[in-house]
Amino acid sequence: MRVCTQCGFTYAEFLTRGLLGCPECYVCFGDALWADLLQMHPDLHLQPPFGAKAEDREELAKLQEMLADALRGERYEEVADLRLRIREREKKRAAG
Amino acid sequence: MPLVDWASAPPPWIGTGSRAGDARVLFTRTLRRRNFIGFPFWVSCSPEICAKIAVRAREFAHSIGLTRETVLADYSPEHINFFRERHWLPERPTAFPGKREYKRLYQGRDLAEHALAGEVEHWTHVRTRPGLPLSVDSPAASDSMKPDGLFAHAEPFGFLASNPSFAGTGLQVECGLHLPALTAARRMTQIQQALMAMGIEIQPLSLRLPGSADAGFFRAVSRGGMKIAEAELYRKFTGRIESVLQAEREATGRWEKREKTKVEDKVHRAFRLLQEARTLDYAEFLALSSFARLGVYLGHFPASLPERLEDLRVRMQPFHIGALQTEEPPLDADIFRAQVVRSALADLDSKT
Q: Which chain A residue has the Cα nearest residue B159?
């Protein structure tokens, strides 16, 4: 179980309340929190602090290009679908 | 200040400079969320730490000219609901048991600007402006809120917030939207899903009172943003809102083309009802004002009408009505509301 060494908040508590206990929680919850941040911040194009295989990166980059194209074309249903696929990939990366 | 004085005054953002852009945007609010360095977030604070944060918040408020402090625990539920209607408190309160007495509202001379201490984050700085200004609001507030050792900030995250969806810039943007044609065409669910995928949530304008969404009044709320500048985040938000407005303009055009006489009938009927009604509940007021506004977009009514309707939208809410009724015994709220609306719109006439 992930616990913040500063305030004692657990990652499970964060999942329940949606709130972190203190600034140190950002560090203590590490890659699990990163996966959540990637969901919360759709504009976040930031290499998370965990590794990723080259083929995963390529696939993600391709999906993000498709997303940008769909956004330009205002194809909203396609945007929603691509967002979902990107998030699934990000979650897999975080887990594995 | 007695509630009746607040309730008699128009919402402060209406009079702040020229309104920007499409009248379908009622207001734009920027919320900057910060946490004072060296303390845990509000959710995990003990009451003793909350008291220390309250002292720090008061010092900071005074340093930036927000000298009027309201201790929310000292006020009745009627006052608190009035503050919510006035947009000074969030639509949905967050309960932190045992910490209510440390929640504070700070205001200065500009009533379109205020700050909340202790509502999820230590400090939430709010500015409201009419319309959809092209750039993020004046730097006066943001300069004082840059990282200088006062607020919790760390790379690569940016400003650290208890709710991580506000982390990064700490900036959240929201605006009130009037989208009657998309609502009538039943396209709002599709728009909501598309905007959600882009990090913008669309909610009914009021979560406490019924009738907003049915009348086409919505609130678009952005999340924060990481690794992005405030100005860029704001530009993206306004760009996405502009594409929704464009869809609304097109839907309005199609609706008018398809059912010109019916639409004209609806808008003129609504306008006259507002001018003549003897009893008016709030949901009906919203529905009628929605059609009256639509009449302005179609060129039937004067351009000054949306501003008056926005004033009434705020001041005709139940707790404002309660505050405005000073005579004994008070009139029925719906009768009183109709009376105020009639008097506010009496001198206006349609163009056609």
A: A23
Question: How many alpha carbons lie under 13 Å from residue B180 in its C-beta half-sphere?
Answer: 23
Residue with tokens 């055009």: B253
- A26 close to B (CB below 8 A): yes
Best mutation site among B50, B171, B187, B198 for testing chain A: the one with the most A CBs within 10 Å?
A: B198
How far is C-alpha A41 from the chain's CA centre? Answer: 8
Mean pLDDT of chain A: 76
Identify whether the C-beta of residue B286 lies closer than 8 Å to the C-beta of residue B318: no
The per-residue DSSP string of B6-51 comes to HHHSPPGGGGSS--BS-TTEEEEEEEEEE-BTTS--GGG--HHHHH
**Residues of A in Cβ contact (< 8 Å) with B161:** 20
Q: Does the beta-carbon distance from B44 to A76 stay under 8 Å?
A: no
Q: Taking all residues of chain B, what is their mean pLDDT, rounded to a whole number?
A: 90
CB-based contact B243 A74, cutoff 8 Å = yes
> Are A41 and B157 within 8 A, CB to CB?
no
Q: Is the pLDDT of residue A25 over 50?
A: yes
Distance of CA B312 to the CA centre of its chain: 14
8 A C-beta contact, residue B244 and residue B222: no
- The answer to whether A7 contacts chain B (CB < 8 Å) is yes
Establish if B221 touches chain A: CB-CB under 8 angstroms.
Answer: no
Of the candidates B35, B120, B164, the beta carbon closest to that of A40 is on B164
Q: Phi-psi category of B126—alpha, beta or left, where left has phi over 0 and alpha has psi -120 to 50?
A: beta
Residue B158, pLDDT > 70, answer yes
| Half-sphere CA count of B158, side-chain side, radius 13 A | 25
Q: Is A41 on the interface with B (CB under 8 A)?
A: yes
Q: Which ipTM was obtained for this model?
A: 0.83
Of chain B, the percentage scoring pLDDT greater than 70 comes to 94
Which range is least confidently modeled, B67-81, B85-99, B180-194? Answer: B85-99
Q: How confident is the model at residue B280 (pLDDT cuts 50, 70, 90)?
A: very high
Confidence (pLDDT) at A95: 57
In chain B, % of residues over pLDDT 90: 68
Token pair, residue A94, equals: 């975080």
Q: Which bin fits A41, alpha (ψ -120 to 50), beta or left (φ > 0)?
A: beta
Tens of pLDDT, residue by residue over B37-62, are 999 999 999 999 999 999 999 999 99
Distance CA B331, CA B280 (A): 13
